[in-house]
Amino acid sequence: MNHSLEEIVHAEKQFQQAMVNNDVQALARLIHDDLVFIDVEGNVQGKRDDIESHASGAVVQTAVEFVEEPVMQLYGESAIVAVKAHVKVRLQGKPLEAFCRYLRVWLFQDERWANYLGNCTYHLLITTHIICFIHSEVLLLEKYLFAQPHTQAFSGR
C-alpha cells in the first residue's frame, strides 16, 4: 500500500487534538500497544503508563501548538516526525509551559497509523520561577558591573 505524508499530518493533528481534549479513547487508538516513550526526565513509558496519566488527570495538556514546520520522512509502513511545539500542561495539578522538541515514529498496522516510539525534550522551559531567577541574576550582574571600576575590562587578558 502506498502512503503519503498527508496521512501522517492527519495522524499528528488527531494526536494533538486527543491530547488537548484529554480524549483517552482517541489516544488509545493512536498509540501503538508496544509504545516506547522517553519523557523529558529520561523515564521510559509504555502505552498503559501514557493512557493512565491522562485518564487519572495527572497529565492534562491544555495546548499543543507546533511552532515550526515538522520534519517528516515516510518509509513504507513507518514514518518519522520531528517537531518543536509550544505546550501548556498541568502535571500533578501544577501548570507548566514549555517549548518541547518531539520525535515520533509512526507505524501503519491494522489499517491505521499508531505512535510506536516517541521522545520529548524541553527546548525551553517557561516558568515564573525561572524568569524571576534570570531577572534577579541580571539585576545582580548589572549591580556588580556598574559598582566596579572597569578601566581594564574587556582588554582581552
TrEMBL record:
Coiled coil: none annotated. InterPro entries: DUF4440, NTF2-like_dom_sf. SUPFAM superfamilies: NTF2-like. Pfam families: DUF4440 (PF14534). Residues 8-113 form the DUF4440 domain. This is DUF4440 domain-containing protein. It comes from Ktedonobacter racemifer DSM 44963. The lineage of its organism: Bacteria, Bacillati, Chloroflexota, Ktedonobacteria, Ktedonobacterales.
